[in-house]
């Protein structure tokens, strides 16, 4: 597990492209047979990819977190973006087809990840945050989610928002997690943009062709910067930063949030004329 530290917005003004990518971009999440995680000190979110092939995989971070087992003091959200598989929680097995999700409550001792077909492995994207209470584990089938349709082709942002770990679906301590799918011909997400000083966010961009690139904009509204991402890369967005993007083709992204509240629409909107 890699550790990333928090940054003051004034510091980011001096960053080169290389420094910006080193601090906020995570490039290698899904590697066959591996668990690749990043621990950001921004609200202590842990996120990353678990890609089992022939062997099951689990997350062992007891020494790094100073606990007896990974979810002793944490909750966990999982969305599978790869082939079919199963997740086993303390002996109970959950089938995970592509884009299925799972909320795992604090106190779950054993979490095992499995792929049905090693040649088409499951790709489990995870978000984990500190938790103070145990809420029930909930399996979230994408077929059972009623997406929010928003945007418009005229503004290149027609999309559907699927809420997974969200008060409309299940209870959680502070974690929120969902998936946004852009329609063909649409490329903009979260524009007009916003910040939310009360919560941080992590974006995972995926379902992109090999030569498709996403342009993720971040920074204070009057001091914006950008990162260029390829398929299955993620970016850390501190609470003071905007988080919006466009791409050379349509794409899908997973958003994960944590912080002071779980109010999805608690945001500070930024007027277009305020962007620099």
Topology:
Layout: E1 2-4, H1 9-12, H2 17-24, E2 25-26, E3 34-40, E4 45-51, E5 57-58, H3 62-65, E6 74-80, E7 85-89, E8 92-96, E9 101-104, E10 111-115, E11 124-130, E12 138-140, E13 148-150, E14 159-165, E15 176-182, E16 194-195, E17 199-206, E18 214-220, E19 223-229, E20 233-237, E21 244-247, E22 252-259, E23 268-269
Parallel strand pairs: 1-3
Antiparallel strand pairs: 2-20, 3-4, 4-11, 5-10, 6-9, 6-11, 7-8, 7-10, 9-12, 13-14, 14-15, 15-22, 16-23, 17-20, 17-22, 18-19, 18-21
Determine the mean pLDDT: 96
| CATH level 1 name | Mainly Beta
What class, by secondary structure content?
mainly beta
Give the number of domains: 1
In the CATH hierarchy, the third-tier topology is known as Jelly Rolls
Count of DSSP helices? 3
Helix content: under 10%
Give the strand line-up of the largest sheet: 1-3-4-11-6-9-12
Over all CA atoms, what is the radius of gyration?
A: 18 Å
Task: Say how many strands there are.
Answer: 23
Compressed to H and E, one letter per element, the order equals EHHEEEEHEEEEEEEEEEEEEEEEEE
Content of β-strand: 35-45%
CATH architecture: Sandwich
- Calculate the terminal CA-CA distance, rounded to whole Å: 35 Å
User: CATH H-level name... which superfamily?
Assistant: Jelly Rolls
Residue stretches low in confidence (pLDDT < 50, at least 5 long) are: none
Major sheet summary line = 7 strands, mixed
> Which outline best applies?
globular
What do you see in this structure?
Helix content is 6%, strand content 42%. With 276 residues, it is mainly beta. The strands form five sheets. Strands 1-3-4-11-6-9-12 form a seven-stranded mixed β-sheet, with no helix packed on it. It has a seven-stranded antiparallel β-sheet with strand order 2-20-17-22-15-14-13. It has a four-stranded antiparallel β-sheet with strand order 5-10-7-8, with no helix packed on it. A hairpin with a 2-residue loop joins strand 7 and strand 8. The two termini are 35 Å apart. The mean pLDDT is 96.
């Amino acid at each position: 597990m890699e550790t990333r530290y928090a940054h003051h917005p004034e510091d980011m003004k001096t960053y080169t492209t290389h420094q910006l990518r080193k601090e906020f971009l995570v490039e290698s999440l899904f590697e066959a047979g591996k668990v690749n995680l990043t621990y950001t000190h921004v609200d202590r979110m842990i996120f990353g990819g678990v890609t089992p092939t022939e062997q099951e995989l689990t997350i062992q971070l007891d020494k790094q977190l100073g606990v007896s087992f990974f979810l002793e003091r944490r909750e966990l959200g999982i969305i599978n973006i790869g082939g079919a598989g199963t997740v086993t929680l303390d002996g109970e097995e959950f089938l995970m087809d592509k884009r299925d999700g799972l909320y795992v409550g604090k106190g779950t001792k054993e979490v095992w990840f499995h792929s049905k077909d090693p040649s088409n492995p499951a790709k489990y994207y995870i978000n984990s945050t500190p938790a103070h209470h145990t809420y029930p584990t909930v399996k979230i089938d994408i077929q059972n989610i009623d997406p929010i349709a928003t945007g418009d082709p005229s503004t290149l942002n027609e999309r559907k928002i699927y809420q997974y770990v969200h008060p409309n679906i299940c209870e959680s301590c502070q974690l929120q997690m969902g998936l946004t799918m852009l329609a063909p011909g649409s490329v903009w997400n979260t524009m007009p943009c916003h910040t939310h000083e009360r919560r941080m966010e992590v974006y995972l961009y995926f379902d992109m062709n090999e030569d498709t690139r996403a342009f993720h904009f971040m920074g204070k509204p009057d001091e914006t910067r950008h990162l260029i991402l390829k398929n299955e890369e993620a970016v850390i967005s501190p609470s003071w930063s905007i988080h919006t993007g466009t791409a050379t083709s349509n794409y899908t992204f997973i958003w994960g949030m944590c912080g002071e509240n779980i109010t999805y629409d608690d945001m500070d909107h930024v007027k277009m004329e305020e962007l620099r």
